[in-house]
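G., the chain you wanted modeled:
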Amino acid sequence: MPALLAEVTRSGFVESLHHGSVVGLLPSGDIAVSVGAVEDPVLPRSCMKPFQALACLSAGAPLAGPALAIAAGSHTGENRHVELVMQVLGGLPVGLLRCPATWPEDEQTRQRLTEPSRVRMNCSGKHAAMLAACVAARWPTQTYLELAHPLQQQVMRTVEDLAGEAVTHTAVDGCGAPVYGLSLHGLARAMQGLVRTPVADAMRRFPEYVGGTGHVNTVVMQLLPGVVAKGGAEGVLVLATAAGHAVAVKVLDGNPRATTAIGLTALASLGFDVSPAKEHLSVPVLGGGQVVGEVRVVFQGGR
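Predicted structure as tokens:
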């Protein structure tokens, strides 16, 4: 059964509740934190991106450094992100990107623009990497999002190998790419398998391309060097350390406001020092511009 993970208080009143599941693995692979239905399948959403980037790399995409980080990230659409996406495309026309045109998430950048575009979409780094992989492997570029395409089959194999389990469901993500359902436990196992790959190395070295200025994933990685943090839509988050601690979170109502606090609390329960990011262990609730409450984690660590 899903469990109560966090509550929202305002002026001493419990205003909202967030239920879901969280699992934490020790470097040995043993489960040390298990709250809620951790064996139930979830759609990882953008938490899939590091595995998709690894599949692109395996297919021969010439990705390294910041380019590999943005392939695994959900960038905020700043100019530096767009410039890097164009580099990953390597001269391919932007029109080949099959992600939808959107406004950038970075507010200052958005205010300077007059129309949305595909390269500003937070998934454009992943899509550019997929096209680069298709070129390298001599696979069709027009159909790279189709489930039967060799690249998407490579992604599925990569996910299943890292998770140690079969995909339970296939869906279409918000950007149009296939997304594969796994148990929350399997998602955490997959993150354990990722931490010693070039993808994780790139994410750790260049966190500004995994998110962007002020993005919580970027900030957490900057505060906790060696940690990989990647959020996904609908309340999903994964965290992993270079030593192999791994955490996966799913909040059932889909609201992400508590996921970082939940994930860091679980990571601390594994014995990892999260004190440099202690300000993210809760989220302030404002009233009239003043702090009048908080989003606070209420689950107990352990099984």
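The radius of gyration is 19 Å.

Shout if anything looks off.
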